[in-house]
């Protein structure tokens, strides 16, 4: 294997098992085999540190103030509405701070695989909530169980306040069963469409009656709302509770296949290789749904490094931005700009489009979004003006960013440039391209870029090369 092939495989692993790597990290890993690097990444045993951006008391304070305002008959309607709008703005800003905290962690966490898996499960268990506390609790659940047993993760999310609220299970009672949660847990979280009947959904909904949460976001089983009658689910009859439905779903090998298909599409290739997915599903099922074991199997398999799988995935907006943060050391000094850029590119953390999550793949790219992506490096590193907009949301912070017409970001160019300072000027563009791009570019493109790049010293020349290469369509792939 040539040195450039080995390097590309290392970078492929770092991009898929995390959010990229710095040139220094890639050079450090170069002396190891791909198998050993993958083992090191999967076996890295850093404890899961929860996000603590939203204190419990703050969420209570918000709810109490809102309730008091709505019940206040002494204040004028105009005054009440003004205060309610201020509360809504405050809650939105709290969720924005939570977004920033998680985004920052993606670019700085030592164990990139845990954060990447948390991000994957965030889309698999897509969920919205107006409660920042509930969103934080769910995110910490995903993180703590991201590499454990899928059954534990599934049960925890199924008893999570944000999910129960989002899918209306708080209203699921024996006198009026609500089928939303039962349907999605089968269709989107485990079996996939076509592997259950409408009767299975109706009967499972009865099993989940009484599942709810208290104001602390803690799971509560309300026995007096639970249907104690006999239910027939997947051909079995009994007085089933929700936990037993979860066990039925896990006992079906179709769940392993469905989850592995989604993992393959996200971590390997949008185009499914049935033999590979079946091998993954068989291992996943027989390991009792051990996620860490499954990811180790994927990342140490020879087929994972096939040329057909390298540089074939379109980076999601979060992967694009977090990748800049992680691999280039970009620091977004204006935190409001991070959220604004997520909106421009079409993916905002904690705000999936629906319960099915973001579709991914080619849906990330159209003529408008590609232009925005290719302009982004020049906006960030050359302070060029923003030539794109998002739909007005009424957020005053976004209005400030629009008026500034620029973002504020910084890179420690001294650190980033150091590994390349001794490279021959004629080879500099190609060497930098090998680190920044996961697909090879031809000599004509390198030559054309090089004609425009001039500088007073090598550091300035490297900076211009980096911005030019990041502005290519090829930078959108990993």
Structure notes:
The chain has 478 residues and is mainly α. Among the domains are: 3-43 and 252-309, no CATH class; 317-410, no CATH class; 413-476. It is built from 23 helices and 6 strands. It is globular. The mean pLDDT is 90.
Brief summary of the model shown:
With 478 residues, the protein is mostly helical. It contains 23 helices and six strands. β1 and β2 form a beta hairpin.
Quaternary form: single chain
- The number of distinct helices, counting runs of at least 4 residues, comes to 23
What is the count of β-strands? 6
| Strand residues, percent | under 5%
Parts with pLDDT < 50 across at least 5 consecutive residues: none
C-alpha end-to-end distance: 21 Å
If you compute it from the alpha carbons, what radius of gyration comes out, rounded to the nearest whole angstrom?
24 Å
**Mean pLDDT across every amino acid position:** 90
Main beta-sheet strand count, sense and barrel state = 2 strands, antiparallel
**What is the general shape?**
globular
Strand order of the largest sheet: 1-2
Helical content, roughly?
Answer: 55-70%
Helix vs. strand class: mainly alpha
Order of helices and strands: HHHHHHHHHHHEEEEHHHHHEHHHEHHHH
